UniProtKB/TrEMBL annotation:
<dbReference type="InterPro" id="IPR045494">
    <property type="entry name" value="DUF6436"/>
</dbReference>
<keyword id="KW-0472">Membrane</keyword>
<feature type="transmembrane region" description="Helical">
    <location>
        <begin position="12"/>
        <end position="31"/>
    </location>
</feature>
<keyword id="KW-0812">Transmembrane</keyword>
<feature type="domain" description="DUF6436">
    <location>
        <begin position="66"/>
        <end position="208"/>
    </location>
</feature>
<keyword id="KW-1133">Transmembrane helix</keyword>
<protein>
    <recommendedName>
        <fullName>DUF6436 domain-containing protein</fullName>
    </recommendedName>
</protein>
<dbReference type="Pfam" id="PF20029">
    <property type="entry name" value="DUF6436"/>
</dbReference>
<dbReference type="InterPro" id="IPR036249">
    <property type="entry name" value="Thioredoxin-like_sf"/>
</dbReference>
Length: 209
């Protein structure tokens, strides 16, 4: 009787393992179909290909901020509270917060115009004074995707615009790439180089519109 039970137990383990693989594969397929998309599509606002136009889009938010401190760069994080992809980009966002103190890098959250006030309040409570939250103006509804960020120098020169990374899990070739850009802006090296507009690729993004 015990000898007959052993093949049955092995069969049950194999069946459960196969079932788990199928469920996992279906979950990944759903995720890719639902959230894996181009950061910017051919019919999106063409301003977000052009550094000068992006800088103009950011100007109304600078008016709501104090002037940057000497040597302080600004990170604008475009945030939809209901976007599942926020969790995937969190690693890159957290690294930037950990790599720089507030005097080196100020964090400004640009919340989607329709973000519930309760979500904004909870975000501020969790992060204290480390970040500021500004509700996006209606004109920003043409932003192609979220999460996204812009890194801007002390003199409001745009250094980077685009996502935190590409791919289903927001990977990048070098995890410290964005931190390197902040350091280049702080040292003045980025002023000698063109702005990095990094918008061509697919990843986990939510439509902003």
């Amino acid at each position: 009787m015990q000898q007959n039970d052993k093949p049955m137990a092995n069969w049950l383990i194999i069946t459960l393992f196969s079932f788990w693989i199928i469920i996992t594969a279906l979950g990944l397929w759903w995720f890719q179909q639902a959230k894996l998309k181009s950061f910017i599509d051919f019919d999106d606002d063409p301003r977000f290909y052009q550094p000068a136009q992006i800088s103009q889009v950011l100007q109304p938010y600078f008016y709501q901020l104090e002037p940057a401190l000497a040597g302080q760069q600004t990170l604008f994080h475009f945030w939809r509270s209901d976007c599942i992809c926020n969790r995937i980009s969190q690693r890159h966002f957290s690294r930037l917060i950990n790599d720089f103190n507030p005097q080196q890098l100020r964090i400004v959250i640009i919340a989607h115009p329709d973000t519930p006030q309760q979500d904004i309040n909870e975000l501020q409570q969790l992060n204290g004074n480390r970040l500021q939250v500004i509700r996006a103006l209606p004109e920003l509804k043409t932003l192609p995707s979220s999460p996204a960020l812009a890194i801007v120098g002390e003199q409001q020169q745009l250094g980077y615009f685009g996502p935190y990374g590409f791919g289903a899990f927001c990977t990048s070739n070098e995890d410290g790439f964005l931190s390197s850009l902040v350091n280049q802006l702080a040292s003045g090296q980025q002023e000698e180089s063109p702005t990095f507009i990094n918008v061509i690729g697919e990843g986990c993004f939510c439509s902003w519109q």
